[in-house]
Structure formats: structure tokens, C-alpha cells
Amino acid sequence: MVGTLPVPADDPIDAAKVSAWMEANIPGAQGPVTLRKFKGGQSNPTYRVETPGQNYVLRRQPFGKLLPSAHAVDREYRLIAGLHPTGFPVPTPYGLCEDPQVIGAKFYLMGLVEGRNLWDGSLPNMAPAERTAIYNAMVDTLAALHNTDFVAAGLESYGKPGNYFARQVERWTKQYRASETEHMPEVERLIDWLPRTVPEQTRTSIVHGDYRIDNMIFHASDARVIAVLDWELSTLGDPLADFSYFLMNWVTQPEGRSGVMGLAGPETGIPTIEEMVARYCAATGRDGVPDLDWYFSYNLFRLTGIVQGIKKRIVDGTASSAQAAKTAERVPGLAAAAWHFAERAGATA
């Protein structure tokens, strides 16, 4: 998942067309363009764009038939363009192409941010103090996002007000149904239970939607987030959705990705979940967070819907990443984990 590879032969993106669009729409851009595909980016294919004067990043929608409201690169671009002037760490936005005729799908260009990509939440080969600093940087950056004045950023219409979780449960139920490939009893129980037990929303903020360590770029030497990436699932909503999703790392087995279950403590330097809650609440003016089991169940249900969408794209032949098949195998486990936390929150079969 780290780094780039040559654009595969079956990927029809046309570098000459990208170059022509850039020269016509981005001041100072000049071809020729060389493209390399990032290994990550299962949802929206992402490319390193090299030109004689500057390097960029291009993100496009997948080619072929798409689920409603999915792969909204135009929304992603709008969010980055709104956040960038506030000083929040996002790449520089350069241009959005909403005409799918140019390269076969909508796409946008942003700046290439050079720094560290950290994929393993256990942060191997780091000293305990370094790990503490990285985790503090992540939670501080999330708090800064949730404290951002989205009206001043021109994003007041970026999402609907109120009832965030109710709308999200409805959305991911529809997305799951649209990409369903088999009957799963746990998912059916969740579809019944979640909308009946939605917690009250008390705050509204920009919500990233997939806030995890591998969606950030860190400074080359400092414990500082210099870019938050992959805003496809962003909207206005309940900040507890983001924060509880981040805290799921502490209840997820270490798997070489974001899970750090059993690893927190002074020996490793990875803060405890209680320390993360205290730091986030201090930064956002909260006096605490509610019981998290419902939120964990919801987040796992949503992940089930997302990964089921990847599985359906494999069936349809439009999955964009070599890792897609391995990811799709997680669907039953995610559904079972979601139901486990639902039971802890009081659900019964």
C-alpha cells in the first residue's frame, strides 16, 4: 500500500489529456505529464503527477457505474478548498474537472505533500516519547478540525443540520443494499437496531469520516500532521463520529494498520484511550464523552457497508486496488464485530 507503481495497462487514464487540461486550467502548469499510480486509494484512484516544473496529485472517480453519492471527488475538492485558507493542514487545491469526458471520470488536482506516511499504529522502531507525540498530534489535529468555523470557511451548506447518525445509518443501509452480495444475519439485526437507538446530537462540526493514521502525512522529523488526506466521506455532522472512529484503534487488534488494542501504556508510549479522551475534551471544551459502545457498533456497521462496496466492485470488475480482494474478505468479521458492540450497548437478537 506504500508508494507508487507504473499505471497498469488496464487503466485507461490518458496522461496527454491530463496535461492538456492542466495547462488550460492551472496557472503555470506545463507538460508533459508523467503519471504513476499510488498503491493505496481503493475507493478513488490516486496518481502522482510529475511535470517539469512541479509535482501534483490527481484523484479521480472510478470508471464505470457508481453507487449513488459515492466517490464524490467534487465534494472532496470543495472541502479542501474551503479548509486550506483556514490553515488547517490539507494539500493546496489546484483545480477540479467535473466533465467526465476529459479523462473518463471527474477528477481534481492538489499539491503533492512530502513527508512521512505512517501505516502501522504501533509505530515500530519509535521511542515511547515519539509515539506519544505522534498520537497527541493526531488527536490535536482532529480537535482543530472540529473547532474549525465551517461557516467562515464557506462550508455551511456542506451537510444537512442535525440528525447526523440517523442520516448516516440510513445512507449506509442503502449503500449496503445496493452492493449486497449475500445474506448476513448480523447486518440485518444492525439495520433494525441502529436507527431505533440513535443518540442525541449536541454539536455540529466538519467530520472527516475516515480519520486514521494512514490518511495523514506527518512532518519528516517533527511529530506534526502536515496534511490530512482522503476527504471523500466528509460532511457536516456529529464530531463524536470522528472521535469514536479514531478511538476504535484501541479496541482493534494490532494488524499492521491502525489497531493498538493491548499496546497502550508507558512502556510503549502509546497513550491510553482515557488519555486521548481527556486531551480531546480539553481541546474542544467537552466535559466528557458518552458510553462508546453504540458509536463503535455504528462505525463498524459503516465500515461493513464501505467494504461491501469494495466487494461488489470486485464482482463487477471495477475495483481499483490490488488490495481490494484482501480487504473484501473482512466483511463478515466487521459485521460480527459491529453486532458484538451492539450487544454491549443493549441490543438483543
Question: Mind explaining what this structure looks like?
Answer:
By secondary structure, the chain is α+β, with helices and mostly antiparallel strands. The protein has two domains: about 5-110, Phosphorylase Kinase, domain 1 (2-Layer Sandwich), CATH 3.30.200; about 130-345, Aminoglycoside 3'-phosphotransferase, Chain: A, domain 2, CATH 3.90.1200.10. Helix content is about 35%, strand content about 10%. The protein is built from ten helices and ten strands. It has helices spanning about 15-25, 75-85, 130-145, 165-180, 185-195, 240-245, 275-285, 295-315, 325-330, 330-345; strands at about 5, 35-40, 45-50, 55-60, 95, 105-110, 205, 215-220, 225-230, 235. The chain has a six-stranded antiparallel beta sheet, with helices on both faces. It has a two-stranded antiparallel ribbon with strand order 7-10. A two-stranded antiparallel ribbon has the order 8-9. Strand 2 and strand 3 (about 45-50) form a beta hairpin. Helix 3 packs parallel to helix 7 (about 275-285), helix 4 (about 165-180) packs parallel to helix 8 and helix 8 runs antiparallel to helix 10. The radius of gyration is 20 Å and the shape is globular. The relative contact order is 0.14. The mean pLDDT is about 90.
